[in-house]
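=== RUN LOG ===
request id: a7f3
mode: sequence -> structure
chains: 1
length: 441
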Amino acid sequence: MRLLVVSPDYASHLLPMLQIAAAWQARAGDVVVATGPATRPMVVEAGLDWIELRLGRGSNAGVIVVGEQPQGEDDHLRAFFDATRRGPMETLRYQADARRHDLLYDPDGVFERLGEIVREVRPDRVAVDHVAFGARLALHLLDVPTSTVVLGHPSALSAPGEVYGVPSAWPSSMTPDPTALRALEVQCRESVRELDEAAEEVRTRRAPSRPPAGDLTSSPGDPTIYVYPEALHDPARPLPIAHRFVGSLARTESLDATPLPSGDGLRVLVALGSFLSARDDVLATAAAAARLAGWRLALATGSTHVDRLGPLPDGALVQRHLPQVALLAHTDVFVNHGGNGSVTEAAAAGVPQVVLPFSTDQFAGAAAVERTGVGFALAPNTLTVQVLVEAVAAAAEGPVRQRAQEVADSIRTSGGAGAAVDAIRDVGNPQRNPQRNPLRN
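=== RESULT ===
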C-alpha cells in the first residue's frame, strides 16, 4: 500500500508527520511526502520520497527568522511578535484577522498541484495535517478520502460549541476579560464564515458536482489522528467517532557532542519554540532565574541573539538549536511555550513543565498541563524572576514528578506512530479500527 503524506513547509509540522511516514514505510509499504522546498532535506534525510507542494507563503526549516521570510510575510511576523507583547487577547485577535488571508493560500494552485500529485503517486491512503485547509479542501474536491492528523492541542479541531481561534480552556493565571472574550468570539466566527465562503466559491468553480466541504475547522478526518496524550485530554470534551490518540510522535535523538550543563542545581531546560524564541525578554527572565536559583540551565536561543540574555550562569548550555528530545532525558523541569510538540515530548519523557503560553492553542495546552497536575502555567508578559524560580521549584517536587511519570507510562501504551499507521491503514475496517462508527463504512 502507498501512503501520501501532505504537510505545510514547517519543521514543527513535518517532523511528527515523518514519524508516521517512516513507520508506514517499515510496516505497510511505500510513502511519498508532499511538502515545500525548505523542509525537503528532512524528508530526504529520513529516506523518504519527496514531491513539491507549496501550501503557504512562509516556511520554517528550524528557526523562524523574520528577515529570511518572503516580502509581506516578514511584516506579518513582526506584527505577530508585537501582538504577543501586548497580551493574549491582542495576539488572538491579530491571528483571527490574519486568517482571512492565510487559511486558503492559492486554492486553485493547490487544487491543480494536488490533482497532479494524486494522479502521479496513485496513493492507497492519504494523511494530511488538519490545519492544511487548502490541501484538505483540494482533496475533498478531488474525491480522495483523507485521514487527518491533529498536531496541535485537540481543540485545533473544533468540537461542538467551540469556535476555531478561541481557546477551549485557559490557565488560571490568564483568565480573559469576558467582554474581550466575546469580541474575540465574534471575530473568530467571522473568520470561519469567510473560510467557508471561500471554500464554497472554489468548489463551485472547480468541482461543482462535489458536495460542499462544510466547516473545514471542525470537519474530522477518516479517521482523525490526535498527536496528544489521552491522559491530558478533558474527558468531557466531545471527539469525532472515528479517532485515535497516539500520544507523542517525538523523534529519536541523541546528544552526540552536545555537553550537559554542569553544576549541582535543578536541571532546567528552557525553549520557546521556533517562533516565540523571538521573545528575548522572556528568555532573559529565565536566564536571570537560573542565575538566582543555581539551575543547571540548558536554553535554546532560537532567533534571539545570546547577547540579549544578560549574564549566564556558570556551566550553562546555551545554543541556537538544542536536541530537545535527547535533553529531556536529563531534565528535571521543562520551561516551554505550550506548543504541542514541547508539551507532548515532555509528557512522554515524564518531565514536569512550567508553561508560558503566548498564542493559539497554547492556552488550552497550558490549561491541560495545569488541570492534570503535570506542571504549572504562568503568564509570560508579567513573569518575574522570583515567580519563575518558585514555579520551577514547585514543579520539581514529588507530587508533580509522580503525576508526570504516570502520564508518561500511559503514553507508552498508546502506540505512537505505529498506532497512527494502523488507524490510517484500517480505514473502513470496524474490527481493526473499533473507534470508527460502523454506520459510516
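=== NOTES ===
The radius of gyration is 21 Å.
Residues 430-441 have pLDDT under 50 and may be disordered.
=== END ===
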